[in-house]
Design a protein that fits this description.
little secondary structure
Length: 41
């Protein structure tokens, strides 16, 4: 496994015309799994 050598920060605005769903699919949720795999800061 490779080590993390740098970080990229992306900033901006997103304008949407329809509904927006942030996150993964709810169809399969494992025990101890991640329910929404989005990093919010």
């Amino acid at each position: 496994m490779e080590k993390l050598t740098s970080k990229i920060i992306i900033t901006g605005k997103i304008e949407i015309l329809t509904g927006l769903h942030i996150g993964g699919s709810k169809s399969s949720l494992d025990i101890g799994g991640v329910d929404l795999n989005v990093i919010k800061t």
